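So, read this over?
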Amino acid sequence: MKRGIGELLVDNGQISPEELQKAQDERNKTGEPISKVLYRLGLADENQVKNALELEYGVNYVPLKKLTPDLKTILLVPEKLVKEHEAIPLAQEGSRLTLAMVTPSNFAAFNVFKGRLPSWQIKPVVCNEDDFWDFVTRAYTAPEMIEVHTDRSGDDAAHEESLGLWRSFSEEQPVDEPEDMAIILLSNHILSNAIAKGCTNIHIEPTERQVLVHYRKDGVLFAARRLPIALLPALVRRYKKMAAIKLGEASLPQDGRLHLRLAEQELSFRLSIVAGVRGEHLIIWLD
């Protein structure tokens, strides 16, 4: 679920609810994006926005307002897809593609791009929503982009033309099958969301039909989210890899330390895995 930058800053204790209301009142008067109002009023700066977004989504932040749109990369997907899912291809490096997303936890949107670009290894990054729409406007009003749109009959035509230019390049460079990025995003989001909420423990427990994710805060355990039971093996495998724990063992208790880089900090947490009737049960200590 997408949350506004103002809400994230309040949740992280960087601004007060009263300051957010002041900014929203000012935005209603001027029509400016909320982030620009926050900057102008001195209530927040870009570094605070960066930290809030990285904590919320567990991926790196990218300052789109400082970047120049790259036509050949943007044309890999139709404009309609970019605007519908608030995500835009940003940069290419070999067979790797950086995808800037307003909501990286939107796994359905990520999988849409993955399906359209099967030859690419896609790395998601998070961006400020206001910066995203400014970047999109700059991208699709650039003279060279207007020329492409004039010459072609629509978004899909431009998309297919660009794929024709780049597909051969990708297919000539076979790569190892990457780990499912949706699982990487999910595992990071479970951690970063617990950190942002000030929790001390995470419990991931399989039941007959689903996986329950609980957080502990101030000694109280509460439900954070429910996941399909089919995700459990991949999620356990991801956390084991992060903690350098042996993957093949599933019957004995295992312990290790998770390592995560978040908001320019190297974080380390203790992980315990215990076998259960319906699968492995994970406990992560954040304090």
Notes: The two ends are 26 Å apart (CA to CA). The chain has twelve helices and nine strands.
